[in-house]
């Protein structure tokens, strides 16, 4: 806080009149606390501290004192060290009531890093883990008569543990197998308190994500089969935590283990990668998620959408190994797959004799058939699969299509083999390129984004969704090829059209593969041409000089319109996440601009809000006049910290910070690219700087085009000259002028 701002302090026990205080002045905080204590005749000022009087209970330190806002009410309370010592003793009390009250206070105070550090210094984490390990046994006899008290004690203990570990002070590698087994036992119980289950799942997720050794131990205690009952309930929070644990196990599993889910995750170690989908299918995980989560009669919240997106990405990443595997032309088993494609398509009744003459005949027949199948290398089609990506994944897709959609496969192959050479759609070549394109669209092999919620329900409707997706798209490609009357020279053009068709259909979020197929039926080549023409007209760049001059004239008022829209959106405000390495425990905070555009109001929220948050409920303020700069991406202070989250490219693209005062900043990670553009544009507009986002450029182009077309409506079908018409010569006399006087 800058000098000159003032706050007030009250002493908790008796709540006397407020005392004015200026924690922003340069004197040490300890000196300020001493002055306050002297004012109330309190001895031993070193046993006291200042704390925010709101629900945050944040202790004021030399590090965070600059963040105190004008008018903030502080309270004088016992110091973090004293408080930690007292609670450390009280949670070991023999009185159940005193113990429970202390645990509740501990769970509340543990969110503050200053208190957390003091409690951890007393070996508080070890104490909590011992209570979890032994507490259930010690009080097992009391459960029947004190079950509510026992449940509250355990949930408060686990909550305090989660909050303390969230600060990243203690390594996750320090925990015993007994503690892991105890936490896992809470998850494996059929009937357990909801809050205890939530905290237990959160702890297991953090263990897996933050420690390789703990991953191994957790994987031995928790199986997919034991987690599935939690997905079949109606509590979306529990379902979200459960999928988060599954994702964590999936994400951290070594490649050779990333298949699993059967009875012991130890089995994962020995499973080949391709068995993952089979094991998940055995446990019916996909169908359970589809029935009880995606198609449940309730809206899917953002956190659940994110976890479903992560599961979708991790599932597709199982294809990466095949995508990056080249075919070995000498491998007979791999060559047999190509022979099978030929056999299904042309149904050879008998094999020629192996005599030298017949061998030549066989080679000739194979070469002819491989040409009909559309391979580039007719003699040795195995060479077509040596490029990665898509590698062997393309051949896998082709075989799946041939075996599971045999009639469609034979029709596609025979249709093209009966066309003229120049008009045939090469099935082999197109399948390879199509597989590569689908991998790019679905980002196979890329790590999931920390902020994305973009899952597609259709990929949860089939155990072999990628292969089915390919089968639909390969038939689309053949249909589009015919509609375009394409030749081999048009191959890349056809692939571009197919990519546009697929991406436009996916944008509508079809709920099933059949619905996706129906969307594609409405996106024929003719329809794509119409869409392109419409977009081209809307984005038409008028080159004539009069139009360019008109653009230049009206551009400032369009920019002003965009600026007002951005500021209006800032006045409405946005809910942001406080992301950290444990996304499951992230908190929300809200920021909005005051209607007079002079102050930014912001504050923490317990949950994602429905609609706007009123200004008066946001406890913190930042005057716009105090803002020094707005920085983005890698220049943001919170992006310079170490950690896996900070290395994520998509998070970097959504990060921005407001710099104010001397060393203060307000850090943001936008929920999506649109909000990022809105806020960076709006903040730049407040500072009198240019709005440079992609969204502003697109809006400017669209609005300019619309405005120009509206102004030129009366000139429709009239040719606009490049240069103004010549000015006529002056008349020989002005006798025709009428004198009004």
How does this structure look, described?
This protein is an alpha+beta fold. The protein has 28 helices and 11 strands. It has a 4-stranded mixed sheet with strand order 2-1-4-3. α2 packs antiparallel against α3 and α18 crosses α21 (465-484).
Keyword list:
disordered N terminus; 741 residues; 28 helices; ELMO_domain-containing; phagocytosis; 11 strands; alpha+beta; single chain; four-stranded antiparallel beta sheet; flat
Low-confidence stretches: 1-5, 141-145, 259-276, 352-356
- Alpha-beta content class: alpha+beta
Strand arrangement across the biggest beta sheet: 2-1-4-3
Principal-axes geometry comes out as flat
Helix content: 40-55%
The number of E-state strands comes to: 11
> What about the largest sheet?
4 strands, mixed
Q: Into which percentage range does the β-strand content fall? A: 5-15%
Task: Give a summary of the structure in a few sentences.
With 741 residues, this protein is of the alpha+beta class.
Outline the fold blueprint.
Blueprint: E1 7-11, E2 19-21, H1 29-39, E3 48-52, E4 73-78, H2 80-90, H3 96-109, H4 113-121, H5 124-138, H6 143-166, H7 177-188, H8 194-210, H9 212-221, H10 224-231, H11 236-252, H12 276-282, H13 285-294, H14 302-316, H15 320-323, H16 332-346, H17 356-372, H18 392-404, H19 406-417, H20 427-441, H21 465-484, H22 491-507, H23 513-521, H24 525-538, H25 545-572, E5 574-578, E6 587-593, E7 599-605, E8 620-623, E9 627-632, H26 649-654, E10 655-660, E11 664-669, H27 673-686, H28 694-711
